[in-house]
């Protein structure tokens, strides 16, 4: 069935769509963005006689590639996991998703900047870009949470927990900005807090959910 034919009018008069093409387009944007991350490495002018030295000097850029790949990869996992539960898409969700994809498509640029300019400006620019992207994701999940008719009926509680835990990433990156203004390396080290902070947040949210369900 075509996308146009799959439109079903909502009670409010809003148009509805099947999510297939939205997911395909989104996956394509993620795939292109994550592929673009490696281009700064492929552009390196390597001299066979100084290969080992040049590879060592490229280590910071390789690390930045790994960081950028991890960030975009985790955002893709989140998008894929939750959009696969979406049963119908309305116009507003389409627009919010486009904002999210614009943020994702933009991320290779600040990642490249960080790889070549790892000082204060590059660190702040990258942290702000990731924080903005995470905020856009949180807004999209919040919208879904407020419109449960768009996705699987038994996923509402899990989506709320995911939204709260997902806020850890933009909060940590945003909090690293003032630290990066003092020390760029200190700001980068703050990013490592995402993993323990996410674990703690997940446990707290799960405990709260169990307590409220009693």
Could you explain the architecture of this structure?
It comes from Microlunatus ginsengisoli. Its main location: membrane. InterPro entries: TMEM175-like. This protein is mainly alpha-helical and 214 residues long. The chain has helices at 20-36, 39-42, 51-57, 59-83, 91-106, 108-116, 120-146, 156-166, 168-182, 184-190, 194-213, and strands at residues 16-17, 89-90. It has one domain (17-213). It has eleven helices and two strands; from the N terminus they run βααααβααααααα. It has a two-stranded antiparallel ribbon with strand order 1-2. The chain is globular, with a radius of gyration of 20 Å. 28% of the residues are buried.
Helical fraction: over 70%
Supply the helix-strand structural class: mainly alpha
Q: Could you tell me the number of beta strands?
A: 2
Q: Per the principal axes of the C-alpha atoms, what is the gross shape?
A: globular
The radius of gyration over CA amounts to: 20 Å
Runs in which pLDDT lies below 50 for 5 or more consecutive residues are 1-12
Distance between the termini: 44 Å
Question: Could you state the order of secondary-structure elements as H and E?
Answer: EHHHHEHHHHHHH
Number of helical segments with 4 or more residues: 11
Query: Main β-sheet, in a few words?
Result: 2 strands, antiparallel
Number of domains: 1
Query: β content, as a range?
Result: under 5%
If strands are numbered along the chain, what order do they take across the biggest sheet?
Answer: 1-2
* Mean pLDDT, all residues: 86
């Amino acid at each position: 069935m075509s996308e146009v034919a799959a439109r079903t009018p909502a009670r409010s008069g809003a148009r509805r769509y099947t999510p297939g093409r939205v997911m395909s387009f989104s996956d394509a944007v993620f795939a292109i963005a994550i592929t673009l991350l490696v281009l700064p490495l492929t552009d390196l002018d390597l001299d066979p006689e100084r290969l080992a030295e040049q590879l060592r000097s490229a280590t910071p850029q390789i690390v930045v590639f790994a960081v950028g790949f991890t960030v975009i990869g985790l955002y893709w996992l989140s998008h894929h996991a939750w959009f696969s539960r979406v049963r119908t898409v309305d116009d507003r969700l389409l627009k919010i998703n486009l904002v999210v994809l614009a943020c994702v498509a933009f991320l290779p640029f600040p990642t490249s900047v960080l790889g070549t300019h790892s000082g204060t400006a590059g660190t702040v620019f990258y942290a702000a870009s990731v924080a903005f992207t995470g905020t856009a994701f949180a807004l999209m999940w919040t919208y879904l949470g407020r419109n449960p008719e768009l996705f699987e009926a038994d996923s509402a509680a899990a989506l709320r927990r995911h939204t709260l835990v997902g806020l850890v990433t933009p909060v940590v990156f945003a909090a690293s900005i003032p630290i990066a203004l003092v020390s760029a390396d200190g700001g980068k080290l703050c990013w490592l807090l995402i993993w323990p902070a996410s674990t703690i947040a997940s446990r707290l949210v799960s405990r709260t959910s169990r307590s409220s369900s009693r």
